Amino acid sequence: MENFTDRLYAAARPIWQESHHHAFLYELREGTLAPDRFAFYLCQDYVYLLDYAKLFALGIVKAEEEADMAWFAELVHSTLHGEMDAHRRLASSFGITRAKLENTKPSAVTLGYTGYMLGVAEKGSLADLVAVLLPCMWSYREVGVLFKDYPGALDHPLYGEWILTYASEEFGKITDWLIDRMNRLAQGLPEPALRRLEELFVTASRYEYRFWDMAYKKEMW
Ligand SMILES: Cc1ncc(CN)c(N)n1
User: Fold this and answer.
1) Catalytic site residues?
2) pTM of the complete model
3) Fewer Cβ atoms within 10 Å of its own Cβ: the N or the C terminal residue of the chain?
């Protein structure tokens, strides 16, 4: 029998594919992305990740099993000290300080995406929370793993480092845990509940696409 996440992947695949061809990611892997667009992305993504870490903290609150609490705690830590450390390092190469990152005003898309995820997580079940946060981890892991093998994609010192963050074994390990957790949470749920989880997953995937687009256009409001 197919895993529930196979169904999620199939539903979001056209959106993920379109993201891979978006000018932001295309130019990033070619090494031609204008630095001001990448710097804009880093600042928006920094404030995005601050809220994303809160989503994992809500995972601790919603979890009923100690093992889940430990995983979500690990995810809070790896976001604040792993992924965001990488952002701080990359940002400093553009002369962007930590204070500037922290004080970034979120764009309409950033606010919309984080507000959507946090709203779902606050009101919904653990399954809802995992469905809405999974595209973030999984789609970035896919970008990292695909792009690292593109000829020349790692040549740009900063964009190459960004790609390797998401292609890393550590990032892959937590993504695999979330995929497995989604499958176990979906087990035995009736079709309307599965459809709802699919809708959350697809909506978050649409926000991922909009995030690349917002960054490329440096669009605030
Ligand atoms: C918008 C967004 N989505 C996903 C990721 C990967 N955690 C991220 N850094 N930013």
Assistant:
1) 136, 208
2) 0.97
3) N
Q: How far apart are CA 150 and CA 29, in angstroms?
A: 7
Give dist(CA 131, CA 134) in Å, integer.
5
Quick check: CB of 24 below 6 Å from ligand 1?
no
Tell me, using a 6 A CB cutoff, whether residue 208 lines ligand 1. Answer: yes
> Which atom of ligand 1 has the smallest separation from the CA of 166?
6
ipTM over 0.85: yes
- Please indicate whether residue 179, judged by its CB atom, sits closer than 6 Å to ligand 1: no
* Of 118, 136, 121, 117, the residue nearest 178 (C-alpha): 136
CA of 86 to the centre of ligand 1 (A): 12
Sequence-distant (≥ 6) Cβ neighbours of residue 10 within 8 angstroms = none
pLDDT in tens, 83-118: 999 999 999 999 999 999 999 999 999 999 999 999
Domain regions of the chain by residue span:
4-217
Question: What single letter denotes the amino acid at residue 130?
Answer: V
Cβ 94 under 6 angstroms from ligand 1: no
Question: Which of 170, 84, 178 is CA-nearest to residue 132?
Answer: 178
> How far apart are the CA of 141 and the centre of ligand 1, in A?
10
Query: 58 with 121: CB under 8 angstroms?
Result: yes
113 Cα nearest atom in ligand 1: 1
Distance CA 86, CA 177 (A): 22
